[in-house]
Amino acid sequence: MSFARVALSGSAWSLGQMLVERGLQASLFFIVAKLLGPAEFGIAAIAISLPMVFVATLYGTVQVIIQREEASDDFLATAFWFAIGLGVVFSLITIALSPLIAHLIKAPNLVSYMVPAAFAPLATSLGVVGEGVLTRKFQFRMLAIRRTAGLFGSAPFCILLAFAGYGPWSLIANTLLTSLISSSVALFGSGFRPRFFVDRAELRAFARMASYTSLAQASVQANTRLADLAIGIFAGPATAGTFRIARTIIDLVISVIYQPFTSVLMPIFSRLATDPQRAAGILAQIMFISCVVLSFPFLALFASAEAVSATFVSHAWIALGPLLAWMAVAYPTNAVIGSSQTFSISQGWVRMGLILTVVDLVPNMIFLSIGATHGPVVLGIMFSLRAYVVAVVVLAILTRADPTMAPRRFVKALLPCYLALAVGAGVLVIKMLLPSVRSGLVPGVLLGVVASLVYAGMVFWLCRRQLHSVIGTLPLPARVRGAVDRYMLLGMQASG
């Protein structure tokens, strides 16, 4: 099998696994959240926040195994015990910090949930080498199965515990079982069998290489999970639980709409990046089309989230609608933040990718901590404001680091974002003038549809040249390309 076919197969399995995982995980969260309520759900989210950051840190060691030229049995055995050691250390750190976190949250019973949740990193460490071996062997199907099997195996037990009234224990059990089942599938599916052997030279080299990749993975996960902890400290478990559900919905939309889209565009654009000037143009194209795509869920949720929440969600989750509506305003910023991080990695700018991740993490914690003390609306506003501040900083870093990254090019590429914000301002005015839009399902959904259609018309009319430039890079059939060219010609005649 050629490398192109291997890459295509791997991308397809990875994309399918991600969509199934995110969809199943979101469905599970919604079911359990309805049974638990915001406070208990928030306690569970806080309890697993730190262990999930450590789990992501462990996955950074997988990259070292993949990148190793020769993965001998001695090397794999050393890597296995290194991962186990890290898992033990991370579990002990979580247990040690649990009384302090419980004190800050003002929830003494949090310790009883954090202690068992602390073993998630240890359970994950069992499968680190197995996952690395599977990746080296291009066994993408087994890699996709391992995580999905963990979710399918743990979900029924989680729902059963929630129905039986065990509250946060349902999500704690889900976290532990998912990690244990996934690790078992990876370990046994890879054919690797651990033996008690540690090569000191290999151990030092492995630790040195893993420190950087693990830090990068931890930064990404910390950006998501530590927000739950910060909000819990400043606003309590109920607000943390509401935020976690809203963030799950935001991330689900990005996973379904944006990530598959960029997984197709990135390889196409990356093949054209033969010089720095061309690379800057490619990044601008990615930002432009990503901004167009992500503006639609922004407008749809901003217009209808409160109405949909008021119709389908119990009174206990009343704060979810306004929080979700304002968090959706941040969607277009992923065109800058997410695209820049992914593009940096695709171009081999690994250190730049890590810098951009840290730049996103620090303001995230500060803004959310401030917003959490002023209610769900302000929390949602601060979430989105933070995203736009980070997007500006990311662009400033990129343009300063590389002289070929002309700021004017990116300002022009983000025209769809400005148009979306203008339409969003109109939606806000309508919601303020017509309160029924916020509580009525039909008016709310209708407003979202109209706003999306108005935005689409503005983009097609005002961004024709950019659309044509991006579409021109795609391998489209001659008939479709001809239709695009005719559309451009008509648009130029009408405007000239």
TrEMBL record:
<feature type="transmembrane region" description="Helical">
    <location>
        <begin position="377"/>
        <end position="398"/>
    </location>
</feature>
<feature type="transmembrane region" description="Helical">
    <location>
        <begin position="282"/>
        <end position="303"/>
    </location>
</feature>
<feature type="transmembrane region" description="Helical">
    <location>
        <begin position="78"/>
        <end position="105"/>
    </location>
</feature>
<keyword id="KW-1133">Transmembrane helix</keyword>
<keyword id="KW-0812">Transmembrane</keyword>
<keyword id="KW-1003">Cell membrane</keyword>
<comment type="similarity">
    <text>Belongs to the polysaccharide synthase family.</text>
</comment>
<feature type="transmembrane region" description="Helical">
    <location>
        <begin position="349"/>
        <end position="371"/>
    </location>
</feature>
<feature type="transmembrane region" description="Helical">
    <location>
        <begin position="149"/>
        <end position="166"/>
    </location>
</feature>
<keyword id="KW-0472">Membrane</keyword>
<feature type="transmembrane region" description="Helical">
    <location>
        <begin position="440"/>
        <end position="463"/>
    </location>
</feature>
<dbReference type="Pfam" id="PF13440">
    <property type="entry name" value="Polysacc_synt_3"/>
</dbReference>
<dbReference type="InterPro" id="IPR050833">
    <property type="entry name" value="Poly_Biosynth_Transport"/>
</dbReference>
<feature type="transmembrane region" description="Helical">
    <location>
        <begin position="410"/>
        <end position="434"/>
    </location>
</feature>
<feature type="transmembrane region" description="Helical">
    <location>
        <begin position="111"/>
        <end position="129"/>
    </location>
</feature>
<protein>
    <submittedName>
        <fullName>Oligosaccharide flippase family protein</fullName>
    </submittedName>
</protein>
<feature type="transmembrane region" description="Helical">
    <location>
        <begin position="172"/>
        <end position="192"/>
    </location>
</feature>
<feature type="transmembrane region" description="Helical">
    <location>
        <begin position="41"/>
        <end position="66"/>
    </location>
</feature>
<feature type="transmembrane region" description="Helical">
    <location>
        <begin position="315"/>
        <end position="337"/>
    </location>
</feature>
